[in-house]
Amino acid sequence: MNALVLIAEDEPKIAEILDAYLTREGFRTVRAGDGKTALELHLALRPDLILLDVTMPRLDGWEVLAEVRRRGDTPVIMVTALDTDMDRLQGLRVGADDYVVKPFNPIEVVARAKAVLRRAGLAQAGGVVRVGDLGIDLDGYVVRVEADGRARQLQLTLTEFRILAHMARAPQKVFTRSELVDACLPGGDTLDRTVDSHVSNLRRKLEQAGLDGMMSGVRGVGYRLAAEP
Question: Which residues contact 73 (CB under 8 A, 6 or more apart)?
């Protein structure tokens, strides 16, 4: 069955344009004109992707994104007129997978949707990759910390999972920002700070799970996993 996209947008004309282009490319779509309805549809329909406006009635996009992330890892592309670097970083910190600025080319939005879904659906070989106390299930999109006879699951966004899984295939290797963008992030005008934001969130979650120092930055180059042999 074709992917289901939830279009959370309070401007009917924009929603109609997105709907038309996505439908033409074979997607199934459903629309929400406010944040509360978006969350209700997300819970009821479990869409494969959300296109999410920020400025919406009842609940804004940031509140919707935070709740979607609390529930799980549904891919989210922010589609908004807020176009400063700080706005972009805000979205990425909360857990967005990509960020498109209005006015946009709907063909570009569809291309980004396909890229996010392609990565979500699996540009990766299956199996479990292990690095130290980490077990990364590439089929189930689950990351566990396995220590002292116990296993705890990490709650990662889709992009954080992709970055961790990509780096885990070559522990000790230093990955440049451009390598991580090409392998793990949607196409477009992705900034270095976008990568930094995702890695910062991922490193924080690893540290909260007791894996201090597992991910480190290499000044002027990029990032490395399992810096300690």
Answer: 141, 156, 157, 158, 161
